[in-house]
């Protein structure tokens, strides 16, 4: 886990990783959604649909989406499930303001709540949620194990925890294609379209070193999660992990 902690957005900053991630997402929040569609060629939409389907089949009445960003997943839960409590939590006020604009004046406004909070110090009581998700946010945790421990704490027994995160394809030619995409295309797209020149380099670098597959399974089991499974998506470019308590 030591190598993962060295990857930070702003190498010359005195801020810690958590503060840097907050600053970075505040800066790129307004064009984040559009860039995500371009960078993933739209496949991120398909991956999120699978997450929503899993949460829906779990028949969760209370759902927490951590690192909710601009709120896409939390809004989908409001549209597609019968949950009475849906909360999207994020450290970035910039991202949350985009999320709130998406539901303002719609019939979803009272179905989903967006709050600013720290994933490593969740402002909820033990055993609060039937289902918890983290989509493309877990690699931004400053202390991965602390964040996962907090998630375990607020998840109800038999509750569903689901992670969607980038991973690295291991087979030819997908591995080589992924490396070109992440090391060459992603930083170029970020420089062209984003106010923050380093943000998309960081997102690429952090994805490359983050533990995925069996490594993340082992960390989840170490924290205390049970029934841990991982399902690679699109030749391994992303992975969906499920676990319970």
Structure in words:
This protein has 245 residues and is of the alpha/beta class. 46% of the residues lie in helices and 20% in strands. The chain has helices at 2-6, 17-28, 32-39, 43-57, 72-80, 93-103, 144-154, 174-193, 199-209, 214-223; strands at residues 62-66, 85-90, 112-116, 129-135, 155-166, 226-233, 238-244. Strands 3-2-1-4-5-7-6 form a seven-stranded mixed beta sheet, with helices on both faces. β4 (129-135), α7 and β5 form a beta-alpha-beta unit. α4 (43-57) packs across α5 (72-80) and α8 packs antiparallel against α9. It is globular and about 45 Å long. The chain starts with a helix and ends with a strand. Mean pLDDT is 88; it is low at 1-5.
Quick structural summary:
With 245 residues, this protein is of the alpha/beta class. It contains ten helices and seven strands.
Rg from C-alpha positions? 17 Å
Number of strands: 7
Strands in their spatial order, largest beta sheet: 3-2-1-4-5-7-6
State the share of residues found in helices, binned by percent.
Answer: 40-55%
Sheet of most strands: 7 strands, mixed
Tell me the span between the first and last alpha carbons: 23 Å
From N to C, what is the helix and strand string? HHHHEHEHEEHEHHHEE
